[in-house]
Amino acid sequence: MSDSEFRGLRRGADYQFGRGAGAALFPAESAVEVTHTSSGRPRQVHADDGRIATYATDGRFVLGLAGGRRLLAGFDAPAHRVVVGDESEPFVREGRNAFAKFVQRADPSIRPGDETLVVHETGDLLAVGRAELPGDGMADFETGMAVKVRQGTDS
């Protein structure tokens, strides 16, 4: 991967997730492998610990579990987190969606469509997915899907 492509990935992550996300997702010392589309656009970003992210056609990153773990380690709570308790933990870990009725708290800056980390109240990563509700209202809703889970840690 060229230096300019590496800087571009880091810049895109900083824009989407906030300052410091590029360094958290793509540290300089880590070896990342980038696959490209036939037109040369980045598509998948992998490392030794798994898929970090997919670079979607809309220019946003779609997190993999490796990327979720890196963001979890790179940002203090509550950034990018939706917290659930013991009742829904096994289901979310299997890759099932996180429903609003089980959300204990969430990052208030999460907007619908944002990539989120679903974590247990102890702080363990359970899944990565896409927010369906705003973070400041997730715990207030009694029904509906809060996060459409893409991948659980046990799936």
UniProtKB/TrEMBL annotation:
Domain PUA intervals: 80-154
Pfam families: PUA, TGT_C2
InterPro entries for this protein: PUA, PUA-like_sf, PUA_sf, TGT_C2, TGT_C2_sf
Protein name: Pseudouridine synthase
PROSITE patterns tied to this protein: PUA
Signal sequence segment: none
High-level lineage: Archaea, Methanobacteriati, Methanobacteriota, Stenosarchaea group, Halobacteria
Gene3D superfamilies (alphabetical): ArcTGT, C2 domain, PUA domain
SMART domains for this protein: PUA
Organism superkingdom: Archaea
Species the sequence originates in: Haloarcula onubensis
